Amino acid sequence: MNNISVSFLTGPKTTPDPDEENAVKNDYSAAIGALIFSLVFLLGVPGNLFIVWSILARIRQRSVTTLLILNLACADGFLMALTIFFIIYLAMQSWVFGNTMCKIVFYLCNSNMYASVFLITLMSVNRLLAVVFPHTLYHLITRKVVKRVILGTWVLVMVISIPSLVFRDVKEETDDMNQTTYVCAPNHTLRRHVRFEYAFQTVAGFIIPYAIIITSYVLILKRLRETRFQRNIRSEKLILAIVIMFGLFWLPYHVINMIQVAAAWYPKDSATRKRLYGMAESTRAVTSTLAFISSCANPVLYTFAGKSYIKNNGFAFMAKLFEGTSLEQTGTKSTQFTAKDDLGKNNIDSENHTLASPLQNRC
């Protein structure tokens, strides 16, 4: 989530350069930024906690999809809790938490970015195995395998987020009135550092995962057309909605990342470099905010998806939604063939391995 707070505090630079982060006090921008983060906090923290509570307290049999949603809610909810740091940062227009917290907070922000997209990728791969390889590879998905994959995903997330610890420091700045402020900003000392961090974020956190996601859904659609499988499954629609929403929120952010990477290839005094960097700086605040808001959007999505349950189930409506996806994935009438399958199988979309006992995941 690089530059998200800095962007709200910076204005146009006379000499744009990706290695120079000069904070400009702007009360209006800071107020708008603090308001957005406050709304994100008020919506995202309770919303994601409600998802966690619904799954842990209300659902006994948890499918793979439900467990991945649980971990996604844990990641998003934890990130939303960090918004308090950004609210104070913007209100005071100075980073008052020290250099260590500067590194840790942005490290955790980037960890959430990777965790979110990796968990969504696992959802897509899980659907691929359930639909395309239901009687071969999908039978290998046991409770132990799921636990190890989720744990391994979190370990990978923590490792590949390390550049956020290295390329982030508190900088001291003095304005025209000799007032000193502190900015938690990137500390790229070389152009290759800019290219590495932003390119790595986009390739590892967007291009590769989304290539896997798109490939999975292409194969799923191909399989369904071959078998003429007619169905109306909430889990399929819910996962697809999560994938699309995440992509819409994050694509602009990664486009700006690549523009900044392109700018870093040009000499420091190049007009093209200044133009590209100026473009990135002028839109960084908006794209970073969209990316950040994505972590509080899932509870809203689930609420709309489960609105039909609200009247009859009250606060248990979300648990009912997730139970519905589990039932579909364990083989109900809605998941049966309506036409003959050339393989003679009756249920290519079953998640036979629902997990009756809770996994010890990262929540």
TrEMBL record:
Subcellular location as annotated: Cell membrane
Topology in the lipid bilayer: Multi-pass membrane protein
Keyword annotations of the record: Cell membrane, Disulfide bond, G-protein coupled receptor, Glycoprotein, Membrane, Phosphoprotein, Receptor, Transducer, Transmembrane, Transmembrane helix
GO molecular function, one term: complement receptor activity
Family membership: Belongs to the chemokine-like receptor (CMKLR) family.
Any one GO cellular component localisation term in the record: plasma membrane
A Pfam family: 7tm_1
Domain G-protein coupled receptors family 1 profile: 47-302
Residue spans crossing the bilayer: 28-56, 68-92, 112-133, 145-167, 198-220, 240-265, 285-305
Name of the molecule in the record: Leukotriene B4 receptor 2b
Matches recorded under PROSITE patterns: G_PROTEIN_RECEP_F1_2
Gene Ontology BP, a term: phospholipase C-activating G protein-coupled receptor signaling pathway
Entry superkingdom: Eukaryota
